[in-house]
């Protein structure tokens, strides 16, 4: 059984681990096209189209893809800045406000902080800083009333802080540096995705895999690579309470 008492640094992924977000991000482009062009286009068609652009350009994000959408569904007269503004509007008004913490996630974070208040907490996320600020400060955010992300964590690493995203271990190595961690075995990481677990393991951390139904195709690989695996946050919470009571 996990002995949580021996770790001094608790590090959490956000999307899919602490919050239910993948389903909402998946529909964002469909909502974008509906809002901007008043066209109903399937989520799968747009996801496949975007994937073609990403593979062709070998990048995680392609403005050419959104330029094509504007030519096909609109008038083809939007520039890059206008598209970025409209994407941000759709995200902040139709996507981010709907995202919630996974059940028992906040309870687990709060319990850990109450029991181990001298230990350090970090967040390592593929979200950008604007999204973290939205979740923490914007009145439209459902997360804001449950937990202030910015004030809860001692260190927050976003995609804006690194050159290489997961599965590259750069983000976790940056946590080691910022928290002055000499022994990475003292770091306990909570992750839901294969890329995230590969990144954390490459930094020599101990990893807890948290079930995410959007990652089921990689479930067996995730379970095999994780040092511990839990189906939900309540199971983690029970383990924490048990180890605290018996220490």
Write the layout of secondary structure elements.
Blueprint: E1 9-12, E2 19-20, H1 22-26, H2 28-37, H3 43-57, H4 63-73, H5 80-95, E3 100-101, H6 105-115, E4 120-124, H7 129-137, H8 149-152, E5 155-157, H9 170-178, E6 187-191, H10 194-202, E7 206-210, H11 219-225, E8 228-230, H12 233-246
Parallel strand pairs: 1-4, 1-6, 4-5, 6-7, 7-8
Antiparallel strand pairs: 2-3
Helix pairs in contact: 2-5, 6-12, 10-11
Model description:
With 247 residues, the protein is of the alpha/beta class. The protein contains twelve helices and eight strands. It has helices at residues 22-26, 28-37, 43-57, 63-73, 80-95, 105-115, 129-137, 149-152, 170-178, 194-202, 219-225, 233-246, and strands at residues 9-12, 19-20, 100-101, 120-124, 155-157, 187-191, 206-210, 228-230. The chain has a six-stranded parallel sheet, with helices on both faces. A two-stranded antiparallel sheet has the order 2-3. Helix 2 crosses helix 5 (80-95) and helix 10 runs parallel beside helix 11 (219-225). It is elongated, with a radius of gyration of 19 Å. The mean pLDDT is 94.
């Amino acid at each position: 059984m996990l002995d949580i008492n021996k770790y001094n640094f608790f590090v959490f992924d956000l999307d899919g681990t602490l919050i239910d977000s993948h389903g909402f991000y998946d529909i964002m482009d469909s909502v974008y096209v509906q809002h901007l062009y008043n066209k109903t286009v399937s989520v799968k068609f747009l996801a496949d189209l975007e994937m073609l652009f990403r593979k062709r350009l070998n990048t995680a994000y392609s403005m050419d893809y959104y330029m094509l959408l504007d030519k096909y569904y609109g008038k083809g007269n939007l520039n890059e800045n206008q598209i970025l503004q409209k994407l941000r509007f759709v995200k902040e008004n139709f996507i981010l406000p709907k995202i919630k913490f996974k059940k028992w996630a906040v309870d687990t974070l709060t319990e850990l902080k109450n029991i181990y208040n001298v230990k350090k907490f970090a967040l390592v996320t593929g979200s950008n800083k604007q999204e973290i600020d939205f979740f923490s400060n914007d009145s439209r955010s459902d997360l804001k009333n449950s937990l202030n992300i910015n004030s809860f964590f001692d260190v927050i690493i976003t995609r804006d802080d690194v050159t290489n995203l997961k599965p590259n271990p750069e983000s976790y190595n940056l946590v080691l540096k910022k928290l002055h961690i000499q022994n990475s075995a003292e770091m306990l990481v909570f992750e839901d995705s294969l890329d995230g677990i590969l990144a954390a393991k490459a930094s020599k951390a101990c990893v807890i895999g948290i079930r995410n139904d959007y990652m089921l195709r990689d479930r067996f690989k995730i379970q095999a690579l994780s040092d511990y695996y839990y189906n939900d946050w309540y199971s983690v919470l029970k383990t924490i309470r048990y180890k605290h009571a018996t220490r």
